[in-house]
Amino acid sequence: MELLLSGARQLGIALTNGHLAKFRTLRDELIQWNRRTNLTAITDPGEVETKHFLDSLTVVLALPKGFSPSARVIDLGTGPGFPGLPLAIVYPDTHFTLVEATWKKTDFTKHALKALGLTNVTVINERSETLAHQPQHREHYDIVLARALAPMPSLAELTLPLCAIGGIVVALKKGDIAQEVASAEKVTSLMGGRLKETKPVGLQELADGRVLVILEKVGHTPSNYPRRPGIPAGKPLL
Ligand code: SAH
Fold first, then answer.
1. Among the four residues 9, 24, 61, 108, which has the most C-beta atoms within 10 Å?
2. What is the largest CA-CA distance in the chain?
3. How many Cβ atoms from other residues are within 10 Å of residue 5's Cβ?
4. In the prediction, which pLDDT does 3 show?
5. Could you tell me if 217 and 160 are in contact, meaning their C-beta atoms sit under 8 angstroms apart?
């Protein structure tokens, strides 16, 4: 847990023994379930701690003042709970909604919530395209998170309709993404968004070119977006 601890410290997060105990539980449950059900390609305990847990926590770099307890946060395509679960461990006063289309993954996340005793998380087994047209979710969230969900043009169509005006989308990316970001400029603007910043993570513990792409929501998304499930990823708007 040393790398998680030191990396988190650099992010301005002081992990307590209570946090670390929860991260150990999550790590062990993930590795154990992964033997039966394919949840993640990362199975080495040390890599789970850095590439899943620490990487998830880097989202705080996109929020100058950290998570405000009242912020409404949604994580789209959370898989087995990343980045949402590690953030929910560290920010127990903030409510997180975790959305994932595959029930095998949501089953794990629901189990993990019980094992961790977390009450600040709602898990929804649904496509985000469907959720985005439901009034209780549409343009409702202050912070929309997405890691490894889709390339930026599809990601913009999937995320921005759920983001409230004044809110932000944080996409966790890796490598040289300038071109990918540029290719999403038109669809970002069509969805009522605009590029705020591309922020290198720059943590020694994750020295593999991680970046946060931050979009801000400045206007309403036209009601016909996102398109039907599967279309944003299958036929990206360019
Ligand atoms: N965010 C996790 C998982 C990434 S894999 C992580 O970084 O580890 C992408 C996940 O998104 C898959 O589990 C897939 O089932 C889910 N997904 C893709 N498109 C989706 C959509 N439109 N709605 C909900 N889940 C989606």
1. 108
2. 48
3. 17
4. 95
5. yes
Per-residue buried b or exposed e for 34-52, using 16+ beta carbons within 10 Å of the residue's own CB:
beeeebbebeeeeebbbbb
User: How remote is the CA of residue 100 from the centroid of ligand 1, in Å?
Assistant: 6
Query: Residue 102 CA: which ligand 1 atom is closest?
Result: 15
**Domains detected in the chain:** 55-226 (3.40.50.150)
In ligand 1, the atom with minimum distance to the C-alpha of 131 is 23
Amino acid in position 94: T
Tokens 């670390």, located at residue: 20
In angstroms, what is the span from residue 235 Cα to ligand 1's centroid? 17
Query: What pLDDT is recorded for position 129?
Result: 98
- For atom 23 of ligand 1, the residue with the nearest CA is 127
Task: Let me know: does 118 contact 86? Beta carbons within 8 Å.
Answer: no
User: How many other CB atoms are there within 10 angstroms of residue 114's CB atom?
Assistant: 9
pLDDT in tens, 45-79: 999 999 999 999 999 999 978 889 999 999 999 99
Which of 149, 159, 160, 235 should be mutated for ligand 1, with most atoms under 8 A from CB?
A: 149
Cα 74 to Cα 114: distance, rounded to the nearest angstrom? 19
